[in-house]
Amino acid sequence: DTAMYHAKGRGRGRYELFDAGLRDDEEERLELATAMRRAVGDGELELVYQSRRTCGDRRVTGVEALLRWRHPELGVLAPDVFLPIAERTGRIVELGDWVLRQALADLADLPDERLTLAVNISARQLVSGRLTRTVTRALSESGVDPARLVLEVTETAFSDDPATAHRVLDELKAVGVVIALDDFGTGWSSLQYVRGLPVDVLKVDRTFVADLPGELTASAVVASVLGLGHGMGLTVVAEGVEDEPTLGLLREMGCDEYQGFIDGEPGSLPDVLN
Ligand code: C2E
Ligand code: MG
Ligand code: MG
Ligand code: MG
């Protein structure tokens, strides 16, 4: 029951990969786009969580919400299967609203009021024209302090309409939420560009973290993100930490926090907080 479908050729590590039942063609994408129309209303969406911890003493500082679609016939679908389709059809805005509401409601149920909640925001959602209103409303409905909400955006969010993306981030900062740049290092934006954005957290992409122990170029990238990120007063988080040697190295390098399968796979909130 833990099997999860990824898009063909994607996904790695401990996920099992299944192709059967998913045809990688236009017909399949159309079927998924149609099925997605009822996914929200029929309660087929689910959130799993991953803890974020300090590199030093591995204390939990927060959680990241990760979206899953429990398709009635196909099983559990990973975001790489359906998010690109949701982006193209515009359905991502509705999905994103649901994620924000659900994740904040889950967080509001927790006894520990210091934990932060990170929610991923897609490029299209960021420039949809309604994100700030949705975030403000979801925050007031849940009663969660805005400072506990981290919105994760990727560099690609700035490639289409950088001016709008920047303006929306400024609006969100004014609401009091925390902004993180996800998958950092994979895009084209320079640290000089980041300097002009209202960003608080850099998340080093897991492709660099995965290659860290052996590869000189990977550790050079991580070291430079740490140096310049810290120089700008930002918190640096390493994604995709899978083993102790990697975590040890990150700790030595002065990385602030990490996430990864080293603490188990994403799961329910109570499970990942243990
Ligand atoms: P992301 O935000 O960078 O999330 C990290 C991804 O890496 C997650 O995959 C997570 O399960 C996986 N991961 C975490 N630790 C490890 C590790 O140690 N090793 C390996 N191999 N993988 C690890 P997932 O859940 O499949 O999500 C993929 C991407 O989909 C996310 O990347 C994010 O960009 C997007 N996404 C997920 N949920 C949402 C959502 O609610 N809204 C939007 N717009 N995007 C989402
Ligand atoms: Mg993320
Ligand atoms: Mg990431
Ligand atoms: Mg990613």
Automatic annotation (TrEMBL):
Residues 29-274 form the EAL domain. Coiled coil: none annotated. It comes from the Bacteria. Signal peptide: none annotated. This is Diguanylate cyclase (GGDEF)-like protein/PAS domain S-box-containing protein. It comes from Kineosporia succinea. The chain holds residues 259 to 532 of 532 of the full protein.
